[in-house]
Design goal:
- 35% of the residues are buried.
- It contains 29 helices and six strands.
- Helix 4 (46-61) runs parallel beside helix 6, helix 7 packs across helix 11 (203-215) and helix 24 packs across helix 25 (478-490).
- A hairpin with a 5-residue loop joins strand 4 (347-349) and strand 5 (355-357).
- The chain has helices at 2-10, 15-27, 33-41, 46-61, 67-81, 87-94, 107-131, 136-144, 147-159, 170-183, 203-215, 220-229, 236-252, 263-268, 284-287, 294-310, 312-322, 324-335, 358-383, 398-401, 418-431, 433-439, 445-451, 455-468, 478-490, 497-512, 514-525, 530-544, 548-555, and strands at 218-219, 256-257, 291-293, 347-349, 355-357, 402-404.
- 63% of the residues lie in helices and 3% in strands.
């Protein structure tokens, strides 16, 4: 050991080779090497030692004969090293794109090796979580850093792994997708542990796997890296399926992390029609147009709705303001109205300053659909010129298969097919998207939506929501509560449970701070509509009834002495 210490201290680069020999010896049933590795870790800083350990494990794993024992040995080694090894750095080192496999490896050997390294990375993660199970806060902290492992893993798949899978073969492509899905912890638990039988994993290990598979986060960089794989490596619909599963899983645990609103444009790449050769035969007036596959476009829209609900203050606010189509879908989710448009008799300012109404949305969507259909018929006719067949709106295959990606802030919203509304409703039932939207106060989309409609129309969709989600009343700001109380009174709901809850909340706000409550109703008292003014008077009476201070303020004239 003294000789090795001198060697490593004089030549730190030799540490990887020494560690490799120690691991190989341990695999050859020559015991005592784990203690030696532990001692070697004390000679250099943990980051350097971890980097050399990754190189050593990588080198040993190339030899197929020792793989069967390497994974359990790695778990024992990590348990012994404890905090001395940086698990995140070790995983990143195992999937480094700087090292090349031996040239003599054939494709099937390379694929087996990639699968094994993928399992090693998972083993490191599981070992780390297992060691922290007694410290919940540390488990949460480590799970939060998991994206620092998964990002280099996905990059490794994109730049290295994919080249060993012939993507023109269906079986090979399916194998690559399954391997990537496993790396992202999207596979069932049985893919990571043995559930039954004499070799069944312990309940502790099953619990660890369950935590990782359910709580693994995802951030914008991982989603962007997956999108980059689409087209040259994976087919669009395959990549989109991975993204859908990732976003759905992480939404439930609120583990979707976004840094910018640019992800919306990135995601739209998953539905673009991948036909670079098409532009070579098109006239100049058509070359700058981007086509998208209709089916994939609406799937991407549903993903963006989910992401918007998980990140309302950034992506949600951006799409609400700049994407009329996504906004219309978000309004469906917000109001639980599974129709299009979701709002009836509404009026609000559009992005270009025009007034947007229900009728204007319907007319604008119809015009957009017709103009795009005419364009696609013309485009298909240009491509089939000389074939002897005249392309019309009746026989066009492109009109229903593709659409133009030219949506702008001032453009009309696209009308989704009914199947998209049904899918959106199913997604909302599964993930409770609407609840997340209604809880947002910055931006407050609920208030903005309520202000675009008359009070009685607001109550038509808000009352059912409050009936199903009574606790939603507790989340509403005072502006919303006062408007809701006014709407309930105008709707003549009597002494309903909803009215009682809303009234109780408004009274509590009045006790805490009277001025905001008075401001809300004073605005309504200045309304041009008599019904609004009458409703405000009734609401003030309801709120003031048990509160002497407020009653005196509203209904008692000043005495001569006070004057």
């Amino acid at each position: 050991m003294e000789t090795l210490s001198v060697l490593v201290q004089s030549n730190p680069a030799a540490l990887a080779k020494v560690l490799q020999h120690c691991i190989s010896n341990e695999l050859s049933m020559s015991h005592g090497n784990l203690k030696m590795i532990q001692n070697l870790f004390e000679l250099v800083d943990s980051r350097t030692a971890t980097d050399h350990l990754a190189v050593a494990i990588w080198s040993v794993s190339v030899d197929e004969r020792g793989r069967g024992s390497l994974k359990p040995l790695l778990r024992k080694l990590l348990k012994r090293l404890g905090e001395s090894v940086d698990s995140v750095r070790l995983c990143a080192g195992l999937v480094s794109t700087d090292r090349q496999l031996p040239a003599m490896f054939e494709n099937h050997q390379t694929q087996r090796w990639f699968t094994f390294v993928n399992d090693l990375v998972a083993a490191v993660i599981f070992s780390k979580v297992s060691s922290l199970m007694c410290y919940p806060d540390k488990v949460v902290e480590f799970m939060g850093s998991l994206t620092q492992i998964q990002l280099p893993v996905v990059t490794w798949f994109r730049t290295v792994v994919c080249h060993s899978f012939p993507l023109d073969e269906t079986h090979s492509r399916v194998s690559l997708l399954k391997l990537l899905s496993k790396a992202l912890f999207l596979e069932p638990i049985k893919e990571y542990v043995v559930l039954n039988g004499p070799d069944a994993s312990s309940d502790h290990d099953k619990g660890v796997i369950s935590i990782v598979c359910s709580d693994a986060p995802v951030d914008e960089s991982i989603l962007t890296e997956l999108v980059q794989m689409s087209g040259p490596i994976l087919q669009h619909h395959d990549t989109l399926e991975l993204v859908e599963r990732l976003v759905s899983r992480t939404f439930k645990t609120n583990q979707v992390r976004l840094n910018s609103a640019q992800l919306a444009d990135t995601m739209l790449r998953l539905c673009k029609y991948p036909a670079p050769a098409l532009h070579q035969v098109l006239s100049k007036e058509h070359c700058n147009k981007e086509l998208a596959t209709t089916e994939l476009y609406w799937r991407v829209c549903l993903v963006l709705v989910t992401l918007a609900c998980s990140n309302v203050h950034l992506l949600g606010a951006h799409l609400w303001k700049h994407s009329p189509t996504i906004r219309a879908l978000l309004e469906c989710v917000l109001t639980h109205s599974w129709r299009w448009p979701a709002l009836e008799s509404f009026s609000r300012a559009g992005a270009d300053g025009d007034v947007v109404t229900e009728d204007a949305m319907i007319v604008g969507a119809a015009r957009l659909a017709q103009s795009q259909k005419d364009y696609l018929v013309t485009l298909e006719g240009e491509l089939t010129k000389g074939s002897g067949t005249s392309v019309t709106s009746q026989n066009s295959r492109w009109a229903d298969t593709y659409l133009l990606l030219d949506e702008k802030p001032g453009a009309a919203a696209r009308r989704p097919p009914q199947r998209v509304i049904v899918a959106l409703q199913s997604l909302n039932n599964q993930l409770q998207l609407g609840r997340r939207l209604r809880q947002s106060r910055d931006p407050d989309l609920l208030i903005e939506t309520m202000q675009a409609q008359p009070a009685n129309m607001v109550m038509s969709w808000l009352s059912p929501i409050l009936t199903q989600e009574p606790d939603t009343v507790m989340l509403l700001p005072i502006d919303c509560l006062c408007g809701l109380l006014s709407g309930l009174d105008m709707a003549n709901t009597g002494n309903s449970p909803i009215l009682d809850k809303v009234l109780q909340q408004v009274r509590q706000h009045a006790v805490d701070s009277l001025i905001p409550v008075l401001k809300c109703f004073s605005t309504q008292l200045h309304s041009k509509r008599a019904a609004d003014r009458n409703a405000a008077h009734k609401c003030l009476a309801l709120v003031a009834d048990p509160m002497c201070r407020l009653s005196c303020l509203l209904y008692t004239s000043p005495s001569p002495r006070d004057s």
